[in-house]
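Anyone able to model this chain together with zinc ion?
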Amino acid sequence: MRLTIIYDNESRNEKLKADWGFSCLIESDGINLLFDTGTSGALLMEHMKVIGIDPQSIDEVFISHIHFDHAGGLATFLNANGNVTVYAPSPVRGIRPAREVVYINEPMWLNEHFYTTGLLGSEELSPDFQNMMGLMEQSLAIQTEKGLVVVAGCSHPGVGNILDAVKTVGTPYALIGGLHGFDDFDVLKDLSVICPTHCTQHIAEIESLYPGEFVRGGVGEILEI
Ligand SMILES: [Zn+2]
Ligand SMILES: [Zn+2]
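re: yes, here you go
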C-alpha cells in the first residue's frame, strides 16, 4: 500500500503549503481512499494537482472526526468528485453530493482490507462532552502482508485505545497521523513504522526514542509499506 500526505501542518516542499490540518491518499488493492480532507478545500485541491492526484481517481473518502481541520475540505472535494462512498462519523448529517454515505458508529470492515475502529472516545471524559466537542473519532487500519497500517486523524481517543481497538483484528505494524498530546511512548514499542505528524506535540521525543522506526511526516511525503 502507498500513503501520500496531501495536507499537513508541515511541509518541506516549496510547492506545497504547510497548513493546520490533515489529509492523505491511501492506495491499496486497487482502492484509492482519501483519509480526511484538511481545513481548506481550495488548498486540498491545489495540493492534489501539484502532487499529481486526479480527484476522479478517488473511490472512497474516510472522515476521522468532524473537526474543521479534517472535514473542512469535504464539500469542495465532493463538488469535484461526488462519485464516492463517504465513511463519516455518525454525528455528521446531510453530506451531499456523495454517491453513498455510510455513517459509522461501530467497528467494521469497510472492505476486505480496510477496517474502521468505529467511533472511539476517551475514558477520561464524559461521552456527552466528547460528542459535543466532536472528539469521537474513527481510525483506519489497512491490512498488509507486514501487519496493520493504522492511520489516525488527531487521536483524540488516545493512541493506546486506538491500537488496542485494531489489535482485535491484527497486529499493528505502522502508525501514521496526528497523535495530539500523546506522551505514553511505551505504547509505540512494538511498531515498525511511526510517522507522527499534523497535531502531534511530541514529535522530537518520539524521534529520539524510536529513531529506527520514526518517519518524518509533512505534506508531499510518501510512505510505501
Ligand atoms: Zn486535527
Ligand atoms: Zn481533532
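The chain has one domain: 2-224.
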